[in-house]
Every structure is written in structure tokens, then in C-alpha cells.
Amino acid sequence: MAKAAKGSTKTSKKSKKSRKAAAHDPGALWDVPPAEALRWARGTDLSAVDAASTPGWSGRRRDAEALLAARAPELADLQERLFAHGRTGGDRSVLLVLQGLDTSGKGGIVRHVVGMVDPQGVMHRSFGVPTPEEREHGYLWRVRNALPRPGYLGVFDRSHHEQVLVVRVDRLEPVKTWRTHFRELKEFEAEVAASGTVLVKVALLVSPGEQKARLAERLDRPDKHWKYDPGDIDVHRKFPEYVAAYQELLDRTSTDEAPWYAVPADRKWYARLAVTELLTGALRSLDLGWPPADFDVAAERARLSAT
Amino acid sequence: MAKAAKGSTKTSKKSKKSRKAAAHDPGALWDVPPAEALRWARGTDLSAVDAASTPGWSGRRRDAEALLAARAPELADLQERLFAHGRTGGDRSVLLVLQGLDTSGKGGIVRHVVGMVDPQGVMHRSFGVPTPEEREHGYLWRVRNALPRPGYLGVFDRSHHEQVLVVRVDRLEPVKTWRTHFRELKEFEAEVAASGTVLVKVALLVSPGEQKARLAERLDRPDKHWKYDPGDIDVHRKFPEYVAAYQELLDRTSTDEAPWYAVPADRKWYARLAVTELLTGALRSLDLGWPPADFDVAAERARLSAT
Fold first, then answer.
1. Which ipTM was obtained for this model?
2. N or C end of chain A: which has fewer CB within 10 A?
């Protein structure tokens, strides 16, 4: 599987058969459903996860791109049902949380995956260094303010989880303080889930080598200079500390109401497909039909005809 | 031109020639640049504008769809430059204001035109009936709060202009009150433009017949019931009053800093192409290059290599 994923030109009997099936249902190239293959299992050694792997997926890049394109209409349809639900008094929403180090591809996920649905139904928020106003409140204050309203797909580019990531690695709070956040994060997300929001928490895993290559590309391309910050190298140097921080984050805050999905992201095409599938699955799980009319359709037809 | 636009199968010499040119530059099918063909000329009789016309465009529907698709990469590139500009201290932004009666296709413009750019760089806001909190403030309060931050493409689905549209037609304020708003609207927009925002104000023009047909479709299709409100028929009955209100709005608030574009919208493909062109033009007018590095590229390369 790993071999095929690396784009080997050799075709095993299995992948030949899979690809044949895929002509009718490209989703058939998932040997293991992505929600299962990617769901964080407590205690997994994060440092041993291959960021270039493609868990559950037996296809190639071009198969993944075909499936991504094929999913677009369904994703858009599901999102529109959610939006319609919100417009007619429903209380459900979906929140996609994107965590990952610089260059892990969070922005590309927003552009290529979230970009497949109607912008009208998206509430996107990036969380950077807190503003002076934000600092006056607890760290969850700005997060609560950005939660998706009913009917919306919320997208967080970084999130409340930074409180045990950058805050831990850069020692912005004493150990005894940031350690209390694991429990708060879980309680907060349980509350969000209970209010009707389906959480899809994605940790994008980039390898140190790939991160270095992507930083080098930002330096080489003048159209990418604006994305580069000298501080990115400092983060790169702290890679092992971040792995330790992510390990504990995943182990301690992956719950049934708000599971983490660890998505290898060295291959952008895989990460984009995987997140598309996770998002599609979350929307499907809501099982929303079109809201029924709250008016008398025949009577309205008669009124309209009379105009 | 009108004939070709209606999809006649007869091909005039002119359109044959145009289409040949269009194979290399689909934009060549604009006989008159859209910003010129659609810009509101004070005193034009709005009630005489054909909502099924395709001003400036000599192509057919399929040509328009091809051009729309061809514009996507440029639009996305221009929007990314704007976003990069905002991230590096720039103060420019673009605000697309969409006005139009129910069924005029505002939502479709958001989905199909705004949907071509990175959702990360879009600030979309729909203005409905004001909330109790909003009512406690002047009508511009919520609008100011929704203005695009530097680097963003703001999108207003309805706007401050409703203060001389629904407010006028439904007599929500006395005449002497709403009449004062024309001046306020102009002053407000002059201020927004002076702060660095390019305004693209679009009035989508739907004909009464097409509106009736679209309302009937909403009644006929269960997946569109949620978009229907019995009040839509009341608005449909007031069509002539709305035309008068739009006439005065366009005549009195189209300025050099914030011009109105009157876009016939009975043919959705035309309206979508036209707004794409107007938006592309607005972004091009900013003439933004990629922000230069504010760090020493060679030094950073050396630092990165050393990791």
C-alpha cells in the first residue's frame, strides 16, 4: 500500500482490481474508511507516524484528485442542507479545527477543501497571537465568539489547542498552569458538541524534512515571501518539542464527542482528500433532509398565480 | 447582439469572427468592457432596462461559461495578492455590495463568483431584518462592523442601501427621514473608499416575469422550500414601487468613488460573468505586486540550511 502510494508504476493485482472498482466508485480505493484509519488511538507513538504515508488509501495521487473532484457536488449539497437547516430554526453546525505546524498545509485545506462549498455558509477564523483585547479575557473567550452559528460550517485555522502547544513549547505559562488546560479543553468541547456542533479536529502531520523543504521554497519564491517569518526557523528547531506537545494533546483531548484525526500531510493531495472525506462524513452524520415547508404550498401557488 | 445573446443558432459574420478571436482570448467577446457597459448613467430609465439583455457581451451562454472558468485562476491570484498585501501592513481591500430583489440571484453570485477565491480571504455578511441589538444603533453601525479588514474581499448580501429600499417601500420610516439617507449613504461610502476600500456596487436586475417564475420554482421544488417565504409574494406585488426606489437609489448614490453597476440578471450566466469581470477589474485596479521580503533572504537561507 505504501509502495503504491509513493507512485510506483508497478501495479499489484489488488490495486488493479481496486482501480477497476474505482472507475465506478472512486471511494472504493479506501481500504479502510478514513475516519477509522485516521482516528487517533491513545498511546500511538506520534514520532513514529510516517508523515508521507497515506493511511487507508490504496490509490495513487491521480485517483485521489479524481475522488476529491467527485466529492465536490456531494459536499456542496450536504453543506447547503446544513445551511437550510440553520435558516429554518435548526441548531446543528459543524466545526472543522485545523491544527498543524507552519507549512503543514492548513491554508491549502481551506482553499481546496472548504473552497468547495458555498462561502455564504462558512465561518472561517484564524487564531494568531492574541490581540491586547483578547488578552484581557480567558483564552477561550475569542474561541467562543468564533463558534459557528447554527447551520454554518465553522473553520478554525489553529485554535484553543495552541494553549497546550505554543504556550507549552515557548513557556508562555508555567507548567502547572498550562497543564490545567487539558481538562478545560475537553470540557469546552463537550459543551460545544452538546450544543449541536459536530467537531472534526484535524492534526496535520508534516515531517521535519518536508517542513524544511517548504520553508526553503518560501524563501526561493518571491510570491511566497509574505508567508515567511524568520520565527518559522525557530519553530522548526523546536520540532521535537512540538511532537511531544502534540503527542500529549492528542492523547489527552481525543474524546468520543470530539475525536482527533491525525492526518499525514507530506503529500498534500492525501491530506486534502482525507479532510474532505472526514468533513463529508461529519455532514452525512447529521442526516439532514430538506426542511419541510412551514406554509401551505398549494395556497401559496394560488396566491402567486393571482399576481 | 441581443439575438445572439438569446442563443440564436444563426451566426452572423461578426459573431463568427468574435468567436474565432475568443478561442485565444475569450474576453474578446466583450464588445464594450463590462465596467463601461454596466456602469449606471444617471437618469437612465431603469424600468426600460431589459433584464434579459447582456450589455456589452456578444457571446453565447457557453462562451460566457468558458470565460468564467478561464477567469478563475486570475481572480484567485489577484485575491491572494490582496490578502498578502493585508498581511504585510497594506491597507487596501475590496467590498462587493450585492443588491437586488428576492430571486435576483445574489446567493448564486456568492456561490459561483466569490466561490472562486480562497475562503480565508473573504468576509461575507448578509444583512437581514435588524436584530434587537442592531436596532439600538444607527443603521450604519452593523455595516461599519462588517467592513472588510485590510487585505480582505468583503461581500455584502444586501446592505445599508436597504435603508432607502425596503424602508421606503414598506414605509418603515417617514419620508422626511429616509430621504436624508441618500446623503448619508454617499458620505459613508466616500469615507469607506478614502480608507482604502474599492467598492463594487452591483444592482441585480430581475424582471417581474422571471421573478414570478423563480418563486414558482421554489414552490415546486421541495429542496427549495426553505428559501421561500410567503412575504416574497408581497414584495413581488410591490415590484413597481421597488423599481422606483432603485431608480432613485442608483441616480442619487452612484459616485466616482462608489459607482453602481446595473446588471441584468434574468440570465444567471450573464450576471455571474459580469460580476466576475467587475470584481476582477476592481482587484486589477489595485495593481498589487507580491510584497517584498522584510527580511534578508540570503541570511534566512543560510539559517535554514544550518538547521
1. 0.90
2. C
